[in-house]
Specification:
It is built from eight helices and five strands, in the order H-E-H-H-E-H-E-H-H-E-H-E-H. It has a single domain, classed as Flavodoxin domain (Rossmann fold, 3-Layer(aba) Sandwich). It is α/β, with parallel strands linked by helices. Helix 3 packs across helix 8. A five-stranded parallel sheet has the order 2-1-3-4-5, sandwiched between helices. Helix 7 links the parallel strand 4 and strand 5. The protein is globular, with a radius of gyration of 18 Å.
Length: 195
C-alpha cells in the first residue's frame, strides 16, 4: 500500500510540475568583497546587501529554484585590488572561466538573472554563463536584476541584449547601495511587471 501512495504522490508532483510554469533564479555574486577602503559608512552593512541576498529574496517570492554561477577565478577581497581584476576582464586582457555546471535550464519557463554591476558593466562570468547555455535560453523569458554601488545597469542590460539577440529579455531592475533598505519593495514592484 505504501508503494502506491508514494507512486501516486510522485505522479501528482510530475503532473503539477509539467502543468505549471517553473522558474529559476540564476545569479553571480561576490559575497566576500571588503568595501571598507572605498566607503566606510556602507562597508559594515554590505554583507547584508549583495546580489546573493537579492537572489534569495527573488527565489523566495517567486518560488523559484536558485542556481549560483561559480567562478574559477579567485578574486582579491579588497576592493582596489578587485577593481584592477575587473578592469582587466572588461578590457579583454584577462580571461574568465566558470565552473562547468550541469544546470538543465530546459525545464524552466522563466529565468531571473542577477549580477553585480562592475565599472558600469556586467561581470564576464555572466557572459560566459549565457554563452554556455545560449541554446537552452533561446525563447525563454529572462528578467534581469542587478546590484550596484552606484553605477547604472543600463549599459550592462544593453550589452546583454545586443550580444544575445536570440534570448528574450524582459524588464530589468538595478538596486544601488543607496536603495538597499528598500530593495524588497523595489523587487516586488519589478516582479509585478514581470508577471
Amino acid at each position: 500500500m505504501k508503494k502506491y501512495v508514494v507512486l501516486s504522490l510522485v505522479l501528482i508532483e510530475l503532473f503539477f510540475s509539467s502543468v505549471y510554469a517553473k522558474s529559476c533564479v540564476v545569479f553571480f555574486s561576490l559575497d566576500t568583497l571588503d568595501l571598507g577602503a572605498v566607503d566606510a559608512s556602507t562597508a559594515a552593512t554590505r554583507p547584508d546587501f549583495n546580489t546573493h541576498t537579492v537572489a534569495q529574496y527573488v527565489a523566495e517570492k517567486t518560488k523559484s529554484d536558485l542556481l549560483r554561477i561559480e567562478t574559477m577565478e579567485t578574486y582579491p577581497n579588497k576592493i582596489n585590488a578587485a577593481i584592477n581584476v575587473f578592469q582587466e576582464q572588461l578590457s579583454g586582457a584577462r580571461a574568465v572561466s566558470i565552473k562547468a555546471d550541469k544546470d538543465n535550464l530546459d525545464s524552466y519557463d522563466q529565468i531571473y538573472l542577477g549580477y553585480p554591476v562592475w565599472l558600469n558593466g556586467m561581470p564576464n562570468e555572466i557572459v560566459a554563463y549565457l554563452k554556455m547555455h545560449e541554446k537552452e535560453l533561446a525563447g525563454k523569458r529572462i528578467s534581469i536584476f542587478s546590484t550596484t554601488g552606484g553605477s547604472p545597469n543600463s549599459q550592462s542590460v544593453t550589452e546583454i541584449k545586443n550580444q544575445f539577440q536570440q534570448i528574450v529579455f524582459g524588464s530589468a531592475v538595478s538596486i544601488s547601495m543607496m536603495q538597499k533598505d528598500n530593495y524588497k519593495t523595489l523587487i516586488d514592484e519589478w516582479l509585478g511587471k514581470n508577471s
